[in-house]
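Q: For a teaching session next week I want to show students how multiple molecules come together into a single three-dimensional assembly. I've collected the sequence lines for a complex. Could you give me the predicted structure tokens for the whole thing so I can convert them for display?
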Amino acid sequence: MNEYILQVKNLKTWFKLDTGTLKAVDDVTFSLKRNETIGIIGESGCGKSVTAHSILRTVQNPGKVLGGEILYDDGNGPVDLVGYKPDSREMRKLRGREISMIFQEPMASLAPVYTIGAQMMEAVMVHQDKKDKKAAKDACMEMLRAVGMPDPEQKFNTYPHQMSGGQCQRAMIALAMVNRPKILIADEPTTALDVTVQAQITDLMKHFQKEYNMSIIYITHDMGVIAEMADAIAVMYLGRVVESGSVKEIFKNPLHPYTRGLLKSMPVLGNKTGEKLNAIEGNVPVPLDPPAECGFCSRCPNRTPECGAGIPSLKEVQPGHLVRCFHV
Amino acid sequence: MPEIAKNNQPLLEITGLKKYYPIEAGIAKKQIGQVKAVDDVTLSIRRNEVLGVVGESGCGKTTLGRTILRIIEPTEGSVKFNFDGEEIDFTSLDKKALRRMRRHIQMIFQNPYTSLNPRMTIFDIVAEPMRLAGDYTEDEISDRVKDLISKVGLEIKHLNRYPHAFSGGQRQRIGIARALALGPKFVVADEAVSALDVSIQAQILNLLQELKEEYDLTYMFIAHNLSVVEHISDRVCVMYLGRVAELSETEELFYHPMHPYTEALLSAIPIADPTVENERIVMPGEAGNAANLPSGCCFHPRCRYAKECCKKECPPLKEIQPGHFVACHFADSLKLNGIGELKIKNENMEENQNE
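A: Of course. Below is the structure for the complete assembly, covering every listed component.
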């Protein structure tokens, strides 16, 4: 069997606006192995959420996936999801069943006017037997218990606003997991949560990965969480993957100036020096009609005139380690 | 002698500060309980120090910051401000006097998207505190605004724009300029970098340190990111359910925690190193409810070291070692793990890999 459950190649998702074309995703390439976790690291505006939505074909209007391939292989050969229309029968079968997603702000991402139970029942019944309500409810309760929800029977009939952030996130995980997906896309699931709740949620996801042979795409800007959760990393900047490789390799030997800048700008626990942090100067530009140049060159300490003249391609500089930079 | 006295006296002395919110029920709005958001906090903050305040959601750290400034009125307790020989009891000032004294204590808010008035230009936002204070001429205001805006890393041409034209990091810089407009000595930074991306966070943290040197500032830095707090703070205060659990010098707290809650909190921090395995202490349940505090020590239901006495008696905050304050009955006998124990695991793992 193909070792990759998902391969994204040269993905392009653009938004045609009145003010110009917003190239949110502009050549994203990465691969996810079965039963592994890939961490997508990037800051605001890098296109990581639009990438996740592109995979599920839930990009909001006027965004459109305009190029590239999203090859999903459930064991029966790869299928290109770009070839399906967003509201097609094929995508509806996949979404919420084979590929699921959890979002950043749990309380804002659950429907506020439906109970948790109602939302989970809907997910089960859309994808499984529509008639057997009892079986559906059993499946929901089993999953609520599995995510460690306190008082699961009571929570089944509760609304999102009546629960804490951590409980809402557990509910969302239960909702995403109830149909045992093969790929879970987690878009900054713990950013809004306390460090102790974050630890519980990441442990829960790791447990589910083992238990259900699941692959995870974990989107975050927290290098600590990536180090704990991920087997591989893809670093994104301004709509492109600028570096990718195994988690150990990227932490030990980061090659792209953005990755290096990011790692150097974080305060390291246990390393209090009293000195200034090595901040990356400047701000992330908005990718509205961006010029054909390396996206990072406006902030790069190593920039040369060559960097403004064209877009570097993603090259394999060591086995499994890819970098997009003219100077590596 | 006066010189020594000035340096030794704490800038801010908080004594027995409480903020209780009543819980009312029924048509008659009878009080049936209280949310003890801040429950008897006593702290002193030294001049020019950065005091980090950490704790989970609901521990009262934001309420503490706001109560000190009297943005929220305290239920009980006092806040005394000592500067240049002058002692001001902040909590007993009347409205008029409070308005005048507010120039000494200012705040930087968490959300850069909601803390700037969207209908005011940047110039007006930074000028507003001075205009309200009433003792600056328009020329003085204009000079100070231009000076402040360039000190925080923005440009004069930004002054006649509106907040929506700026990124989160830039807005936070504007918020900082506004906080410094009246020349305060004490600034409460309430999660000032939490909403920012990692690389921008580094810029703002550096800026805060530069401004502290330049303007002789003292900070209360409220945050939940422990790595950031460790980097910027001289001392750290850990709060739980409205009370202070532990207070000490930063490295002492991180390497030799003495409260079980601090130990568990430190063990939950994800380490940005894939070769380190983190041995996590899992606290059962979630942070309790300040409306319904557990009996005795408010942490006992989640504490792995809890004994009978912990359910009955609430431990006072005591100085267990010089400068190290802990609120735990067993503070001097527990041997807890700090972040140093994680580093040892790191070295072992590297050795194993080389074999």
